[in-house]
Amino acid sequence: MTVALLTLLFLGVIGATADFLAMDRLQIHAFREAQRAATDWIGAFRPGAPPPTPAVRGAVDLLQLVDTRGRIVAASDAAAGMPRLSTLWPPDGDRIQDGVTCLPDGGCVLVSAVLPPPLYVQQVWRGEPHVVYAGMAQPPILAGNRLQILTAAGILLTTGLVAWGNWWMAGRSLRPVAEIREAMADITVSDLSRRVPEPPGRTEYTLLARTANRTLERLEEAVNHQRRFASTTSHELRSPLAGLRALLEEAVLYPGEVDAQVTVRDALAVSRRLETIVDDLLVLARLRAGDPAAQEPLDLSALVREEAPLHCDRVTIHVCARPGMTVRGNRIQLARILQNLLANACRHAASRIDVTAERGDGLAVVTVTDDGDGIAPQDRERVFERFVRLDDARRREPGGSGLGLAISRDIATAHGGTLVVEDAPHGARFVLRLPLEDRPRDGPGATDG
Fold it and tell me: Which residues cross the membrane (predicted)?
């Protein structure tokens, strides 16, 4: 609509200007022809001879010679019998005057009034002034509004074509957007496998569709991830809840046969496991949601030396930590990684756990290695999945939640680092890498505890 109005305004101005210039130029041309015809006729006058019959020049066929008393002395064949063409009489100092005269019987005439030179007047008419009128019937294009009507019709037609072309082009160019919108409207949470059509080429619409499809892929992956998480969580919670309910129902149904103290003790153990699972789930949910945690510069080596001796009384822990490794992070979360790794190593170690903290490739590298049976290569990624507990772990600690390593990896990722299982001569080796905040510098030797 806006384009059509602007086109109409622009063409209206152009059309009005063109009409004015065309009519003005046509009228000027007609007057020049009339002036030339009058001048040619004046040039044919001779002293003492009657005025010759004027020769018709183009469309200028109306010529009259009029004296000062208004009498028509001579006229062309087309003007014979006609009244005086005009009352124009050029003033002194201007031999030519143009005008438009409308005749009594209808129609208008473009007339040029031309005074002969004074020498001609003196020689031919003995000083009596005469005037020559030369004219033509006014062209129809100047007589009525035909030109304006044709111009207006052309403007309206052009405006309509421009509006239709703009509508057609806009519809064609926006068709991919409409298809993308319709496809997006049909996609529901229950079926995120559908994708929007991608137009060919490298237009903005193609990039939009490609971005939308990538977003849908991530959304589908996130929804599937949440569904698996909900399914696994419900399964993991159902088992201890079913056990707790069985204990309580047995105590109610057989009060004389069931030891109440044993039942309460077993119920408390199940409740503690449920509490551990729920707490770990809340931590994991906050990490996966990207909730920011307050971070500060902290000495990772000092944190390792503080946490290592506190988590295992069964085996010996050897710490080799290079001092002065500063990272930026949340102290509680990084301490939880160390606690989970040490607790895991303590469950599987035979007699020794080695903890190191050093620099490597511009990163702070913390390793926790036990001398147990180790982890098979095919299980080294599975152990970081939620609720995944290998057979040995279930045997050694039946009450675990299976979330510790998953939480640890998420914390490492949130701090811009990584947590993986690497090869070790004996047992399992977990390697935590975090970006250093300080510049590398030489320091004293490591401490051993």
Answer: none
**Residue 423 belongs to domain spanning:** 296-448
The contacts found for 379-384 with CB under 8 angstroms, 24 or more apart, are: 380/420, 380/421, 381/421, 383/421, 384/408, 384/409, 384/419
Structural element, H or E, at residue 12:
helix 2-43
pLDDT along the chain (449 residues), means of 10: 76 78 81 88 83 80 89 87 87 86 79 87 84 86 70 83 78 74 73 78 79 84 74 68 85 84 86 76 67 80 85 82 88 88 88 91 92 88 75 50 80 90 90 80 44
Instruction: Quote the pTM value.
Output: 0.48
According to DSSP, the residues that pair with 61 across neighbouring strands are none
State how many domains the chain has: 3
Last residue of a domain, one of 76, 111, 146: 146
Q: Measuring CA to CA, how many Å separate 321 from each of 316, 335, 419?
A: 16, 15, 18
- Burial pattern 278-311, b for ≥16 Cβ within 10 A else e, equals eebbebbeebbeeeeeebeebbbbebbbebbeeb
Judgement on whether residues 275 and 328 belong to the same structural domain of the protein: no
Strands (E), 228-323: 296-299, 316-321
Cα distances (Å, whole numbers) of residue 431 to 30, 320, 365, 385, 414: 101, 14, 7, 17, 16
Are residues 270 and 339 both part of a single domain?
Answer: no
- Partners of 137 in beta bridges: 109
- Tell me, yes or no, whether 312 and 249 share the same domain: no
Instruction: Report yes or no on 175 lying in a domain.
Output: no
Q: How far apart are CA 324 and CA 449, in angstroms?
A: 17
134 and 63 together in one domain: yes
Q: Which of 428, 253, 235 is nearest to 342 (CA)?
A: 428
